[in-house]
């Protein structure tokens, strides 16, 4: 019985050491990778700015195409709407 208790206590100590070791490794990786993250942030910012600019350019192009189409549609459909309203 004493051997089993000693084995369980040893296993508990091993688990505690393992958890502390994993925590230390995580902190070390965070400290090591933080400068790399900070180096990558400007590239992410540039990518986001380019994406926003492309979406805005696409929207402006779409509006520039739709406005003349709407004007032409009203020119051709207007007389028919007037005739329908008169009847």
What does this protein structure show overall?
The chain is an all-alpha fold and 87 residues long. The protein contains one helix and no strands. The protein is elongated. The mean pLDDT is 91.
Summarize the model shown.
With 87 residues, the chain is mainly alpha-helical. It has one helix at 2-86.
Total beta strands: 0
The helix-strand sequence is: H
User: What is the quaternary state of this protein?
Assistant: single chain
Strand count, sense and barrel status of the largest sheet are: none
| Low-pLDDT residue intervals, each spanning 5 or more residues | none
Determine the N-to-C terminus distance: 105 Å
Q: What count of helical segments does DSSP give?
A: 1
Inertia-based shape? elongated
Percentage of β-strand residues: under 5%
Mean pLDDT: 91
Key features of this structure:
single chain; 87 residues; 1 helix; elongated
Compile the SSE list and pairings.
Layout: H1 2-86
């Amino acid at each position: 019985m004493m051997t089993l208790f000693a084995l369980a206590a040893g296993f508990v100590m091993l688990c505690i050491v393992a958890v502390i070791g994993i925590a230390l490794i995580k902190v070390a990786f965070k400290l090591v990778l933080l400068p790399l993250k900070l180096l990558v942030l400007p590239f992410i910012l540039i990518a986001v700015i380019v994406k926003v600019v492309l979406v805005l350019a696409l929207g402006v192009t779409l509006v520039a195409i739709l406005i003349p189409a709407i004007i032409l549609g009203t020119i051709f459909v207007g007389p028919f709407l007037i005739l329908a309203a008169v009847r």
